[in-house]
Amino acid sequence: MADHLLKNIRYSVLDLATVLDGFTAADTFKTSLDLAKQSETLGYTRYWFAEHHNMAGVASSATAVLIGYIAGGTDSIRVGSGGIMLPNHAPLIVAEQFGTLASLYPNRIDLGLGRAPGTDQVTAMAIRGENFSAVHSFPRDIEKLQQFFSANNNRASVRAIPGEGLDIPIWILGSSTDSARLAAEKGLPYAFASHFAPAYFEQAIAIYRNNFKPSPFLQEPYVMACVNVVAADTDAEAERLSSSVKRMFLGVITGKRELLKPAVDDINQYWDQLEKEAVEQMLYYSFIGSAETISGNLEAFVAKFGVNEIMSTSHIYDHQAKLHSNRIFAGLFESD
Questions:
Q1: Stated pTM of the model
Q2: How many Cβ atoms from other residues are within 10 Å of residue 152's Cβ?
Q3: What pLDDT score does 125 carry?
């Protein structure tokens, strides 16, 4: 039976378009569409992709293209970015791309924005070229985007066509307190990357709520927390399946990134105690287990932090197990 707290919470999906060991990016995109279609039938609110570059195991580099692919293969679920790394792009180009998406798929496109490069510094230099050393202002670039989307921009010398006059919700993404202050100042919804940066989560959402200024876009604070989810019929099976995401984060810590590996029975053969502690710290906000186990932990999480929406990301190697996890998680939010 779903808890009253969870019945009032929206639930969504973050997809990194993770490439599996032994498969290709083309395979990944097909399974992403399959997961998105299932998520739509299960009542998930939105399906987002995150912009990353120069990572063999992450195929979401052309984020806007993937958003179009998923939106075109579904009917009602919101599709968007979690997020577009704004310093990598001219605001006009982002406005045109998302204006095109919103024109093709009205009232279904979200634009989540981050300020990090989504990659290493060498790759960031390759992306930005001569602009790499330029002074970037994330707040100013957001204002430029809002201006391009405004119907009042119709007399400006530079216009976003399509994009102008369209209602495309902008979200601020973050993993620190700086993003929280910015989202509060601009009166925009706030999505926190607690799935890999848990340290500042509690402080950041408190800052956001305490400093929030109502805007034409949002009257009250709105917090979405992204968390790792691995659900299965039993706690033991979920723990086994979670070995894939743990090995993935081990690669982040050691700098030895690989394609997502199959689940293993004994994760301890792959890490030492210090590496284990580092991975578990990054995965602090993870919900791993059976429906009963996750439900109790998730209810406690929602009660403590009062989030408005939960976005799950699930790095599970076996696609059928991933679909099953997605189904179990959605069931926690169903009304009685």
A1: 0.93
A2: 9
A3: 65
